[in-house]
Amino acid sequence: MTIALFQQDAYQNTCDAEVRAINDRGGIILNQTIFYPTGGGQPGDSGTLTFGNSQIKIATTVKDRESGEIVHVPEAGQSLPEVGQMVKAEIDWDTRYLHMRMHTALHLLCSVVPCGVTGGQIGKEKSRLDFDVGEKPLDKDQITEDLNRIIAEKQKVEFRWITDEELENQPELVRTMSVQPPKGAGKVRLVKIGENIDLQPCGGTHVNNIEEIGVIKVSKIENKGKRNRRVNIVFG
User: Fold this and answer.
1) CA distance 164 to 186
2) 182-210 pLDDT, tens per residue?
3) Torsion angle, CA of 174/179/184/186, rounded to 10 degrees?
4) What Rg do the C-alpha atoms of the chain give, in angstroms?
5) Per residue, what are the HEC states of 110-156?
6) Quick one: which H or E segment has residue 97?
7) CATH numbers and ranges of domains, the chain
């Protein structure tokens, strides 16, 4: 399987890699990558692969549903590298960093709204989480205030791994009701913010300190059913 360098260092924006395979749809599989594949509500990375005197654009990155391999999807009409060829991979860092800030902000939103998460989407300009709130009222100004108060604490974001069995014995760690954390590899990564702000399994990319998020604003709260509310956030 491709080594997911982004799980070790989300700030690494280039790497050298070997082309391991090209699938029947023209997707490129490398031996290691910094490109995050679409998943958990976070879009896949775009960027470039350079080899020799050639450079191709990667439109997005996905995970193969059957094999689980990370697949780099090139824009159409480009000459692809050969299997075994070395390439220099480089992501669109500006977009990735916005996703990192937004993704971390959604973890804080989970801590501010203590309800089950039924869906979510991360974007570089706005993001959202859907909550099963029951009868609990939500106030966008109060949530905005709570988010920025926590961000001002400048807490570190840390990561550790637990086994699949440990996660099964701690079901309270899973906040998402619609999407379960990836299991089957024997271990799952936990994201921990501060001492008691947030702790939950997540394979996405995040900033190292919540101070990097900047000012966040709840732009609107939408009614998505009897129990569901969609909380939208933007950079302030």
Assistant:
1) 5
2) 655 678 889 999 999 999 898 999 999 99
3) -30
4) 19
5) HHHCCCEEEEEECCCCEEEEEEECCCCCCCHHHHHHHHHHHHCCCCE
6) helix 93-112
7) 3-91 (2.40.30.130), 96-235 (3.30.980.10)
